[in-house]
Amino acid sequence: MIFFDKVSKIYSPTSAALKNVTVRILPKEFVSVVGSSGAGKSTLLKLLIAEERPTEGRIFLDGDEVSALSYRELPRVRRRIGSIFQDFKLLRDKTAYENIAFAMEAAGRDPKEIEEDVPQVLDLVGLSDKAYHFPHELSGGEKQRVAIARAFVNQPDVITADEPTGNLDPVNTWEIIELLTKINELGTTVILATHNKEIVDWLSRRVITIDKGELIRDEQKGTYIL
Amino acid sequence: MLGTQIKRMCKTSWLSLIRNGWLATATVLVMTLVLSMIGGLLLLSVVANTILADLKGKIDISVYFFPATEEQGIMAVKKSIEGLREVREVGYVSQVQALDEFRERHKDDAVILSSIDELDANPLEATLNIRANTPEDLAFIAGYLKDKNYPIVDKINYFENQRVIDRLSSVLASIKSVGLVMVLALAFVAILVAFNAIRLAIFTAREEIGIMRLVGASSWYIRGPFLLSGMLHGMFAAVLTSLMFYGVIWIVSPKVAFLLPQMDLFGYFQSSFIQFLGVLLAAGVLLGGTSSFIAIRRYLKV
Prior knowledge:
The complex is a heterodimer.
Chain A: E1 2-12, E2 15-25, E3 30-34, H1 41-48, E4 56-61, E5 64-65, H2 74-78, E6 81-85, H3 96-106, H4 111-124, H5 140-153, E7 158-162, H6 170-185, E8 189-194, H7 197-203, E9 206-211, E10 214-219
Parallel strand pairs in A: 3-8, 3-9, 6-7, 7-8
Antiparallel strand pairs in A: 1-2, 1-4, 4-5, 9-10
Helix pairs in contact in A: 3-4, 3-5, 4-5, 5-6
Chain B: H1 2-19, H2 21-58, E1 61-65, H3 71-82, E2 87-93, H4 95-105, H5 110-118, E3 127-132, H6 135-148, E4 153-156, H7 159-204, H8 206-214, H9 219-259, H10 265-271, H11 273-299
Antiparallel strand pairs in B: 1-3, 1-4, 2-3
């Protein structure tokens, strides 16, 4: 379970990215976080992976207080969270296969495991035939699927996706969303930050709406309302 | 498991060196300069200590007696010196012996031999060679002889040797301190250069670092390769310097042997090559490690 307990993040005295946000996310949930640009969606995700520390409040991932972990303990928690971004963040000089293997290596996995798992996860995202393509040889949607495979390969409990379809055309957008729901059905919590109304309405899952840093709506089968 | 991680880190640091090849080369060369200074100082003190020890072993006091001095008088002086506690040994070389030794030394030189024969009297002086227990005692013995002011004594040649030794010691001491200052100054430059090399390597690898953090790589897994490549710079420099010294000493050694017959520089270097390499490796790793440690602390946030 993820628990944001009265969390505030203040970058400068005049602007607060998050104000006193309290949210509970249960295992295997699919949660969309919506809000206009700059509302604080990304900040929420960054706080969860401890990329940022909250100014006030506490953040828990199951038994761990993420917001209070030392640098030594952080990697253990980060391995339980897979992250996906709008700009994919793939390594240009590595093939799709190598990009995924790189993440497994960094997480300290065995060479044998890597050999077994990478083809499997490439199959899951439907890119078995493009394993040895470099990012510049892939379409935007394919790149994002490699990124999802990379986030998923270390078997995280949670996947955070920050505007994963922001750079994609409608067809690719739907492929990515379908993939995320598939991963969610396999038992992984998914937190999707987006401002795509169509997606949110189609998903008809839990929606958390943030406006100017404040949580203004939290509905179990929500739609995109601003 | 740990082995796999270490292997991966070694691979990463090696790739980082290759990726930043020119900068790595420049860094290694600057470090080579520092290590050469250190190596040069090391060798210099070995050579200097050999020379000084040799000179100190050789210093004795030679007392020269005027030609045609009665042997009796000389023996009396010898006896009185032998009574001193500071004296270890007194050797007597008579005028005849001195001449024989002289002839022996110049037996291939017909000109010198014939000119000696031309002379009526033996021009060489009888000597007493006095060895002391310690070099410090020599001053006392010389003072004693001077006080006695024997009329048959022509000259006492202790003071000249001492002056040479003193001068040599002070020259060596100042070379060493100037060298040390230069080593420190160069080491500072080397650390700066290596620091920048690592900083640039971190910058080049920022995307990889970001992803490693994201997927939960441990901080030593991320930082290790950069620390390692810093140390690798130093190791390459140490090996390069040692090989350079090997070559240079091989060429220079015969010339040194000509000046200092008791010094087999190349032989000495060969026999202590491992220690030499070890000292340079330690210095190189320290230099490279320090600079990459500083760079990592400043620029690699985990």
